[in-house]
Specification:
Length: 588
């Protein structure tokens, strides 16, 4: 019987089918290993930040100049709580207007729009802008069938605006889970979709989760980030009782005068793909994520107290995931909230993880966007990541506003770490990578290691930069008014590009944007003629070189190669949506 079994097994082992199955299994294992090990590309970015920041150029300009965007709450933002704001620290990184929203663009009815948390509204717009920046129309992301969505969100202040009595719109318009669910529903995404709340680390945790999902093959595109709005004084009152808020509303990371943080608002979204897929697909790569880690403080000295050992292990794990060492890090965008306890612990952990106090450590410049923006809480981590991405792009590290004297509890001796007080070139001899930290009051911590993209990937075709003849492009918007506004923006962009970038402009506006209801096809072989045609369209004219395109028709100019170029964001047609009984009384 044993001999018979052995013979049968041996026969089965050498059949063509078994050999084929073994080959398939081995190839699958190799593919899984490659997917798990490879870096992740940042291919699209969208953001909102205090100071009117809504694009990468504006963000870098503010950072490089050391701008402090913190201010008293605008009068227009006090309603419906009025004088209650005077009872709490009310300097912060406030956005100008957060109730305005282009509801029809996303198919949201007016009644539903009034009930929809402004954080969810902002996510809809910024996610759309991030996909646009990636040159991936929402319909294409949906058609791929494997686009994941990870949203960091903590506050629920808008519930306090509900005076009319609850209804179904308020229920689905304010829960955390519905922030991700609505995005996936509106955009038609069928991959993983979830909201994440780990307090201040939420948005960087979403980047880690998205990276893990991409490595594991759960999705081929991932959208990750977070949002935070301060819509009620009551949450600020609770935060003030913890002693974490700065009484004078100034965030001073690492400074001797540090006395807490100030609450702020913002949103940051990144679109991620496996680097090999991004190269294959001709995507523009903003930065490359090489490693990430998430852990918890565990049993620290207090529930909200940071743990130096946990933070050290966090950074070490992220470096190990990236296959890098301490000397490879030249810049750390720190959590850096400007608290007397948190800052020294964070620096001590970084010193331990990045080589100790040997006196031979390579230079590492420290920064924290909270000195510019305030603490954007559940959006802070991803805004810090975008800042580090920009530092890698410009090979420079911005100054830290409000820094004059090092916190006496912080010792940088022998660590190689220092704090820039002006825009500094990337230090000579420093590592080529940046680390980004974000720590939650819940105890959940995240760290991401990223680097600059290669100038040209080794396997990229040499013809990718060759001149391409262009015959024209298409532009679309939801309404004629929006089309005219968009034409104005695009004409201005054409004036600032190089002739050789015209093909990328034509591809991006035609195939890298969603085809909307009002659409024109422009015949123009160079950027100057294209700008003239768009200027005429902006004035309400339809010159001979422009023709209307039937809604639903396939885009033309299919011969254009995929090259993605920065273009102005879509011109949203916003109007104010607020509960009827929460609107301020008319003046006079």
């Amino acid at each position: 019987m044993e001999a018979h079994d052995t013979k049968a097994v041996g026969a089965a082992r050498v059949t063509p089918v078994s050999r084929a199955m073994e080959t398939i299994r081995a190839l699958r294992e190799e593919l899984a290993a490659l997917k798990g090990a490879q870096p992740i590309a940042v291919v699209g970015v969208g953001l909102r930040a205090p100071g009117g920041i809504d694009d990468l150029d504006g963000y870098w300009s503010a950072l490089a100049s050391g701008t402090d965007a913190v201010r008293p709450i605008p009068e227009s933002r006090r309603h419906p709580f009025g004088a209650a704001w005077d009872e709490v620290p009310h300097r912060g990184g406030f956005l100008d207007e957060v109730l305005e929203f282009d509801a029809p663009f996303f198919g949201v009815a007016p009644r539903e729009g009034r009930a929809l948390d402004p954080q969810h509204r902002m996510l809809l717009e910024v996610v759309q802008e991030a996909l646009d920046d990636a040159g991936i129309p929402a319909a294409r992301a949906a058609a791929d069938g494997a686009t994941g969505l990870y949203v960091g969100i903590t506050g629920q202040d808008y519930r306090e605006w509900m005076r009319e009595g609850p209804d179904s719109y308020w229920a689905t318009g304010n829960g955390h889970c519905f922030s991700a669910g609505r995005l996936a529903h509106t955009l038609g995404l069928t991959g993983p979709a979830m909201a994440v709340d780990t307090a201040c680390s939420s948005s960087l945790v979403t980047v880690h989760l998205a990276r893990q999902a991409l490595r594991g093959g759960e999705c081929d595109i991932a959208v990750a980030g977070g949002v935070n709005l301060v819509l009620s004084p009551h949450g600020t009152a609770l935060a003030a009782r913890t002693g974490a808020l700065s009484p004078d509303g100034v965030c001073r990371p690492f400074d001797a005068r540090a006395n807490g943080f100030t609450r702020s608002e913002g949103c940051g979204i990144v679109v991620l793909k496996r680097l090999s897929d991004a190269v294959r697909d001709g995507d523009r790569v903003h930065a490359v994520i090489h490693g990430s880690a998430v852990n918890h403080d565990g049993r620290a000295s207090g529930f909200t107290a940071p743990n130096v050992l946990a933070q050290t292990r966090l950074v070490e794990r992220a470096l190990a995931e990236a296959g890098l060492g301490p000397a490879d890090i030249g810049h750390v965008e720190a959590h850096g909230t400007g608290t007397a306890l948190g800052d020294p612990i964070e620096v001590e952990a970084l010193a331990a993880a990045l080589g100790g106090r040997t006196g031979t450590a390579t230079p590492v410049l420290l920064g924290s966007a909270k000195a510019n923006l305030g603490h954007t809480e559940s959006a802070a981590g991803v805004l810090g990541l975008i800042k580090a991405m920009l530092s890698l792009r410009h090979r420079a590290v911005p100054p830290l506003p409000h820094f004059t004297t090092l916190n006496p509890r912080i010792d940088l001796a022998g660590t190689g770490m220092r704090i820039p007080t002006e825009l500094e070139p990337w230090p000579a001899g420093a590592g080529a990578y940046a680390g980004v930290s974000s720590f939650g009051m819940s105890g959940t911590n995240a760290h991401v290691v990223l680097g600059a993209p290669e100038e040209r990937p080794p396997d990229a075709p040499a013809a990718a930069a060759a001149p391409v003849p262009v015959t024209g492009f298409e532009v679309s918007a939801r309404t004629p008014a929006a089309l005219r506004a968009y034409a104005t923006l695009l004409a201005g962009r054409l004036a600032g590009i190089k002739d050789e970038e015209y093909a990328a402009f034509a591809y991006t506006v035609t195939h890298g944007r969603s085809a909307l209801a009002t659409r024109i096809r422009v015949a123009a072989t160079d950027r100057h003629r294209a700008a003239a045609v768009l200027t005429a369209v902006a004035e309400g004219l339809l010159p001979p070189e422009a023709e209307e395109v039937t809604a639903g028709a396939e885009p033309g100019f299919g011969e254009l190669p995929r090259r993605v170029l920065d273009l102005p964001a879509y011109p949203w047609e916003r109007r104010r949506y607020a509960p009827r009984d929460a609107e301020p009384a008319p003046a006079g």
